[in-house]
Design goal:
Layout (H helix, E strand, L loop, with lengths): L13 H9 L3 H4 L23 H15 L3 H15 L2 H13 L3 H14 L4 H13 L3 H17 L4 H12 L2 H11 L7 H13 L3 H14 L4 H13 L3 H14 L4 H13 L3 H14 L4 H13 L3 H13 L4 H14 L3 H8 L7 H14 L3 H14 L4 H14 L3 H14 L4 H13 L3 H14 L4 H14 L3 H14 L4 H13 L3 H14 L3 H13 L3 H14 L6 H7 L5
């Protein structure tokens, strides 16, 4: 069995990084989200000079009640203050407190007061619409949504998209579609309204209906990039992948100067795993606008994926020098430096990363330090991260333990996992990782304890079933029991190479060499992992196919010279290479 590490040191790794290029912009796939009507408002900060004693009393009493968690009482006083003061912020506060108190009718009364005081408040109409939908008052909701559309459009925003977002947030996809169909007139010639309808129909998985709305929208605005892209995604969702890509390609070719459409086509090529073609598209867009940082960034990341490091460095340095996407640029330049074995350069780049990518960059620094042999400093880096980034403590504990495991310090890694579990009891990832580490300690009792705890909560945890079965097969004579666990795992993930490897290994341990060979060959076809190769070679050796075994082992060593599996098995079998 190949037990894959739970985490990679590059928490922002190529597939995730490429998502910056490959994903479709949110504005093209779903409506913008309205403000959350449950978001609590800060205490009021009204100027009290012009307020009556009664209003001040209600404001203060309401705020004190809110601080003490007496939401109903807080609402009653806040609503009274809003009624008397006719102040917009007071009405907004009352609405929020009514929602916190789970008093929908009262909260809706406050929202209506808010609208009465401030008829053009977009947020007030949005919240009133959400509440009416949830209270099954569809006619009232549509009245509010019409106001949302009108006010948002005046503000230069997309009113129908906001209405669609409210409907989707507040109802089932089918109900949202029904609401939008009532909101948008059947004879509408507004391409933005029809686009919003198409989005909602897609969410409801009414693809043919969505396609009809998109075609209507394109009839009125044939150059709309968002409608063209949405039609592409709809065709793909209907199973017409080639047609979808061909449609977008034709659209991009018809409008070669439309950068937004060109970007969408390039991203789609990435989604279809055509990085070379995507690269050429982004190069064309770069010639149209050399200052577009998104295009330059995409060129850098795709070049990195294709291992064209010099080109990637050129694009990424341009961003870093111009202070555009500089944190991402420094991070990727650090990755390239690592690939080029320039650890000092990598640390220099990672040290300049700030913002949301800072933790990932610091993890990379810790890995470099550990590889240099400075494990203590690496651990100190991760311990600082746990203090500064408390929400990601589990991840940093896991990375620290994995560094220790790579240094073969399994007992210390066990202590790190155990310390983490003191804080995050029953965390599945920590239990699983500590269990796997126990296998390297040859403590089957500890492994079994942790993995059975996972299985008690989730009997279909395929990885835990597999790890338990493999370890029992590898380190004990409980082979029948081991095979049962692995069979359960295989039924859940029939094409998983790690589980196929485990099944091959337990068959080998039970003396079923031909069956073992079949499972291990299938596992090796799916994964070039050195541990699978070590098992396959051992079975071949035992079957007398020794030249083939040597070829398997040598190929594995060539792919991964630092692996810890091939040399021990060859030594145990007395094989000289």
């Amino acid at each position: 069995m190949r037990i894959n590490p739970l985490l990679k040191y590059g928490l922002v790794i190529f597939p995730l990084l490429l998502s910056a290029c490959a994903s479709t912009p949110p504005s093209m796939t779903r409506p913008p989200q309205p403000p959350d009507e449950n978001t609590s408002q800060p205490p009021l900060d009204l100027h009290t000079d012009d307020l009556s004693a009664e209003i001040i009393y209600n404001i203060l009493t309401g705020e004190i009640a809110a601080q003490r968690g007496k939401n109903r009482l807080a609402f009653e006083h806040a609503y009274q203050a809003a009624l008397e003061s006719r102040d917009e912020s007071a009405a907004e506060r009352a609405t929020g407190l009514g929602l916190q108190a789970n008093l929908p009718d009262a909260a809706l009364s406050a929202a209506k007061l808010w609208i009465e005081i401030s008829p053009n408040s977009l947020k007030a109409h949005q919240i009133a619409a959400v509440m009416n939908i949830r209270m099954k008052r569809v006619n009232e909701a549509i009245t509010q949504l019409r106001q949302v559309v009108a006010i948002a459009n005046i503000k230069g925003q997309s009113g129908y998209l906001q209405a669609a977002a409210i409907a989707e947030k507040s109802a089932t996809p089918g109900q949202a579609l029904d609401i939008m169909q009532q909101l948008v007139p059947g004879e509408s010639q507004d391409p933005k309204a029809l686009y919003a309808l198409a989005l909602t129909a897609n969410r409801a998985e009414q693809r043919k209906l969505a396609l009809g709305y998109i075609d209507q929208s394109l009839a009125y605005d044939p150059e709309s990039a968002q409608s063209l892209v949405l039609k592409t995604h709809t065709l793909i969702a209907m199973g017409n992948k080639d047609d979808g890509l061909a449609f977008l390609k034709q659209a991009a070719e018809r409008s070669p100067n439309n950068i937004q459409l060109g970007k969408a086509y390039a991203r789609m090529l990435l989604e279809f795993t055509q990085p070379e073609a995507a690269l050429e598209q982004f190069k064309r867009l770069n010639r149209l606008d050399t200052d577009d940082s998104e295009v330059v960034f995409s060129l850098g990341v795709i070049s990195l994926q294709l291992e064209r490091f010099d080109a990637a460095k050129g694009y990424l340095k341009q961003l870093a020098d111009n202070r555009q996407k500089r944190n991402e640029a420094h991070y990727y330049l650090g990755l390239i430096a690592e690939e080029e074995n320039d650890s000092d350069g990598a640390i220099g780049r990672y040290s300049r990363v700030e913002g949301k990518h800072l933790p990932d960059a610091q993890v990379r620094i810790a890995k470099i330090l550990a590889d240099r042999g400075d494990l203590n400093q690496a651990r100190e880096t991760l311990q600082r991260l746990r203090i500064n980034q408390p929400r990601r403590q589990v991840t940093f504990y896991m990375v620290e333990a994995e560094l220790l495991r790579e240094a073969l310090q399994f007992q210390t890694a066990h202590e790190v996992y155990s310390n983490a579990l003191e804080l995050f009891k029953d965390n599945t990832d920590l239990l699983y990782a500590r269990g796997l580490n126990a296998a390297d300690l040859r403590r089957v009792d500890l492994l079994e304890q942790d993995l059975r705890k996972i299985l008690a909560a989730n009997p279909q945890h395929a990885d835990a079933l597999n790890a338990l079965g493999y370890t029992l097969a590898d380190q004990t004579d409980r082979l029948v029991e081991a095979k049962q666990f692995i069979q359960q795992a295989l039924s859940l993930k029939p094409d998983n190479p790690a589980i196929l490897d485990s099944m091959g290994w337990v068959e080998y341990r039970m003396g079923n060499l031909q069956s073992a060979l079949e499972y291990l060959n299938k596992a090796a076809d799916l994964s070039p992992d050195a541990e699978i190769a070590s098992h396959l070679g051992e079975v071949l050796w035992k079957m007398g196919r020794r030249q083939h075994a040597l070829e398997v082992w040598r190929a594995a060593n060539q792919r991964d010279p630092d692996n810890r599996f091939i040399k021990p098995v060859m030594g145990r079998l007395g094989v000289d290479d």
